[in-house]
């Protein structure tokens, strides 16, 4: 089922999400719905707060990057990088920071360069409740950090300089008022 994506200004996007347990109601259906919602919006990641749930859960599928020439050397890894992250914890961030033009399904029409470390070490449970610990780099680490920020109540626009924030301020206000066009189902703050 395709769920509405919460827009900038919704308080759930600013909450620090809480851990869940194995008995979380209808978890496998929720994960399936999150993937379906993400694909419908042509996204590569979706966090539970973006669908109104302040829980530590996000999904990622980086298959679309596999076709991009910029990632030719890791295209095979990207083709199979479809993961569920339950109760994740980033243990370490390392390497040089690099800029990438990020966007967000909760903030349609706004894209800006954000600097993030190139490598992370993350611990999480997969959809089968197996504990995983991985060191991940490149575009994979970037998308994970973006989605991880969502469960911490952080948006990519928080990383912008004061000048850049001023430039996007009106766009953000319009999004929070529902004055934005998106090609997918959205829910705007009241």
TrEMBL record:
GO terms for biological process: translation. Its EC number is 3.5.1.88. It comes from the Bacteria. Binds 1 Fe(2+) ion. Fe cation binds at residues 104, 146, 150. It catalyses: N-terminal N-formyl-L-methionyl-[peptide] + H2O = N-terminal L-methionyl-[peptide] + formate. The keyword Protein biosynthesis applies. It is an enzyme of class 3 (hydrolase). Its cofactor is Fe(2+). GO terms for molecular function: metal ion binding; peptide deformylase activity. InterPro entries: Peptide_deformylase, Peptide_deformylase_sf. CDD domains: Pep_deformylase. Keywords: Hydrolase, Iron, Metal-binding, Protein biosynthesis. The active site is at 147. Removes the formyl group from the N-terminal Met of newly synthesized proteins. Requires at least a dipeptide for an efficient rate of reaction. N-terminal L-methionine is a prerequisite for activity but the enzyme has broad specificity at other positions. PANTHER family: PEPTIDE DEFORMYLASE. Belongs to the polypeptide deformylase family. This is Peptide deformylase. It comes from Moheibacter sediminis. The lineage of its organism: Bacteria, Pseudomonadati, Bacteroidota, Flavobacteriia, Flavobacteriales.
């Amino acid at each position: 089922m395709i769920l509405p994506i919460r827009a900038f200004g919704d308080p759930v996007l600013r909450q620090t999400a809480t851990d869940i347990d194995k008995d979380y109601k209808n978890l496998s259906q929720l994960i399936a719905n999150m993937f379906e919602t993400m694909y419908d919006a042509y996204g590569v990641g979706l966090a539970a707060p973006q669908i109104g749930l302040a829980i530590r859960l996000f999904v990622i599928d980086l298959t679309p990057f596999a076709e991009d020439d910029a990632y030719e050397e890791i295209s095979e890894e990207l083709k199979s990088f479809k993961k569920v992250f339950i109760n994740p914890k980033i243990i370490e961030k390392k390497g040089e920071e690099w800029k990438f033009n990020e966007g967000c399904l909760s903030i349609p029409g706004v894209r800006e360069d954000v600097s993030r470390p190139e490598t992370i070490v993350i611990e999480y449970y997969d959809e089968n409740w197996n504990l995983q610990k991985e060191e991940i780099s490149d575009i994979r680490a970037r998308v994970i950090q973006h989605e991880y920020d969502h469960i911490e109540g952080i948006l990519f626009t928080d990383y912008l300089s004061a000048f850049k924030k001023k430039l996007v301020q009106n766009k953000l206000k319009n999004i929070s008022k529902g004055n934005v066009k998106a090609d997918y189902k959205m829910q705007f703050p009241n």
